[in-house]
Amino acid sequence: MNNPWRYAITLPGPPGGHAPSRVVTVEFTGEHSADGNPVYADVHTGLRVEIHDGATKVLGPLSGAGPRTCLHAVPVS
């Protein structure tokens, strides 16, 4: 299975706030989720995600951001 090495993840601002969204780059950890999907992480924010068919599932902390059910992920070359 050939997965992209990095993804850019767009994190929206807090609900009800007017803060702009921010972009975090996550890298493949070499790990796979229980479902067999690749796991990506950002060492600076602690964000850990599982990405499969363009869908992103948050696995690790996003301090103060609350739960996210849908994050936009774009492969980075």
UniProtKB/TrEMBL annotation:
A Pfam family per the record: DUF6296
Source species, domain of life: Bacteria
Protein name per UniProt: DUF6296 family protein
